[in-house]
Amino acid sequence: MSRGEGVPCIELVPGAPLREVPKKKDEGPPEGFIDNTVKCGRYLPDGSIEWYGTMPAFPVIDDYSTTEAEAKTTKNVVPQKPKAINWETEWPKVEAALEEHPEATTAELTRMLNLPYLDLHLRISQYRKTQKGEDIMSKGNIGPRRENKEKIMENVRKMIAEGK
After folding, report:
1. How many CB atoms lie under 10 A from the CB of residue 27?
2. pLDDT in tens, 74-84
3. Which of 51, 121, 115 shows the shortest CA–CA distance to 89?
4. CA distances from residue 25 to 22, 29, 143 in whole angstroms, order as listed
């Protein structure tokens, strides 16, 4: 800083008039400022817009705020496991429905028979592949997945034992 530049000193002299500092005019927001307030309005029948207020663009949401009534209802809820389906009694009903409605989708059959969609879909697709209802009923699972898994696990154990 060169001489003659800098902050002017103010001397306080008793009885001297106070120096008034001019206030800056409000020039608005600086250049590049992004306003996060959203104007709320509605379209009128004549095509004009009626503005009725503002709101924050990103309102604060409290996810943990629950009323006492909500807390009482959600507090003691125990998740229930789906009931196991006895296919020995349900499968004849499914076959009868398939014969009666051959073009019915799985969703329609699910509504008619009140069975879970995925279970019914898997059973019907396996039935249509084999066209034998006995294969589905004779095995506890759908298809040979469990047998393949056991063979694969035997091969993995052999490989581990051999050190591969």
Report:
1. 6
2. 555 666 667 78
3. 115
4. 9, 12, 81
pTM for the model stands at: 0.34
- Which are the contacts of 62, defined by CB distance < 8 A and separation ≥ 6? none
Chain centroid offset of residue 143 CA:
33
**Any alpha helices (H) in 8-86, and if so which ranges?**
68-75
How many CB atoms are closer than 10 A to CB 122?
Answer: 16
Per-residue pLDDT tens over the stretch 44-73: 999 999 999 888 877 776 655 555 556 555
Which tens digit of pLDDT belongs to each residue from 18-39?
Answer: 777 777 777 777 888 877 788 8
156: left (phi over 0), alpha (psi -120 to 50) or beta: alpha
| DSSP letters spanning 114-163 | T--HHHHHHHHHHHHHH--HHHHHHSSSSTTHHHHHHHHHHHHHHHHHHT
